[in-house]
Design goal:
GO terms for molecular function: methyltransferase activity. It comes from Glaucidium brasilianum. One of its GO terms (cellular component) is protein-containing complex. This protein is an alpha/beta fold and 338 residues long. It contains 12 helices and 9 strands. It folds into 2 domains: 89 residues; 232 residues, Vaccinia Virus protein VP39 (Rossmann fold, 3-Layer(aba) Sandwich). Strands 5-4-3-6-7-9-8 form a 7-stranded mixed β-sheet, with helices on both faces. It has a two-stranded antiparallel ribbon with strand order 1-2. A hairpin with a 5-residue loop joins strand 1 and strand 2. Helix 7 packs parallel to helix 8. The radius of gyration is 22 Å and the shape is elongated.
């Protein structure tokens, strides 16, 4: 008999296109050996490749092909009768053409979903912003646990990338206004598409694109949307105090923006400009999530913060484990006091 939620664990990993080695294959093999009927495999197939979300917003063709091939191997290693549905589904996938774009679907605790269109390559169009990095998942999980930080407040996200963290926060934390920001044109285009894909309506004056009818899995979301959403082009090196003041953020967040010395200097310079808020209004709360890939880069960030008098503290690890990202002990969140 399958352990509790085995098919659902396959589903969450598959819809988010996590690495195949992270799936509970040994548990599946054990179940198939003790109970070699096809019901569990059929359940997994319908919760993954044949799930309505996957049919409408599929992971890459290669990913689906590799997953199904592995599933067929597990089935063939048992004494069960051949399962035509597995082979028919694989034949359909083999006839598809590869695309440079794919979808990932992240299930949220209350049943909602964040659907993202991503680029298959890690670096595309001269930017790393067209995929979702681990710190973005880490920040979103913490935000859901600390939703009072965001509820009914204006949030500015720096380096939003393709939008995962912001869309998740907008769906779960009820901010008053959420300002997505980035600089690279390709990223801004993909970001805008992903926001609309998830059923949100953007402030029309905040984006140069003509508003289009939402095609997302929650196309009706605009009917009950309470959060004001804005996409802003923000160049950290040239942004002025007035531009930042006009945004009027209560909370500022960023994920995986501390990875390059030049970017760190620009980021800290912009945070320093934000300290001018002290004159006439409450200074924003700032939370930066990042993966420490290079200790020297992390120490440079700390040194640049110290140089301009920005204090910081590490946010304690959260207990939420919602997204099946490649959790590493060196993913952390700093709160900055500007």
């Amino acid at each position: 008999m399958a352990g509790p939620g085995l098919a659902s664990r396959f589903q969450r990993r598959f819809l988010a296109a996590r690495q195949l080695r992270s799936f509970p294959w040994p548990e599946l093999e054990q179940n198939l050996q003790t109970s070699p009927d096809s019901s569990l495999l059929v359940d997994i197939l319908h919760k993954t490749i044949l799930h309505p979300l996957c049919v409408k917003y599929p992971p890459s063709t290669k990913y689906r092909r590799c997953f199904l091939t592995e599933l067929i191997k597990k089935h063939e290693s048992t004494a069960a009768e051949p399962l035509d549905e597995l082979y028919d589904t694989l034949a359909d996938i083999l006839n598809e053409e590869e695309s440079t774009h794919c979808y990932k679907n992240y299930l949220l605790p209350r049943g909602e979903c964040v659907t993202l269109s991503e680029n298959v390559a890690i670096i595309s169009g001269g930017t790393t912003g067209l995929v979702t990095w681990d710190a973005a998942f880490h920040l979103a999980e913490w935000a859901m646990e600390a939703s009072e930080v965001f509820s009914n407040r204006t949030v500015l996200e720096l380096g939003s990338g393709i939008g995962f963290t912001g869309i998740a926060i907008c769906k779960t934390c009820n901010p008053k206004t959420y300002i997505f920001s980035d600089y690279h044109p390709c990223v801004l285009k993909q970001l805008t598409e992903n926001i609309r894909l998830n059923g949100f309506v953007l402030e029309p004056e905040a984006t140069q694109r003509t508003p289009t009818e939402s095609q997302g899995q929650e196309a009706e979301a605009g009917n009950y949307q309470t959060t004001k959403l804005i996409v802003a082009e923000l160049d950290w090196g040239s942004v002025t105090e007035k531009q930042l003041l006009d945004l009027q953020p209560d909370v500022i967040i960023a994920a995986d923006v501390v990875y390059d010395p030049e970017i760190i200097v620009a980021l800290v310079g912009m945070l320093q400009k934000l300290s001018t808020f002290r004159a006439d209004r409450k200074v924003p709360e700032v939370y930066i999530a990042f993966t420490i890939r290079n200790p020297d880069t992390y120490h440079l960030f700390q040194a640049e913060l110290d140089k301009v008098g920005i204090r910081w503290q590490i946010i304690p690890a959260h207990s939420n484990s919602i997204f099946f990202y490649d959790m590493q002990p060196n993913v952390t969140i700093l709160q900055l006091f500007i």
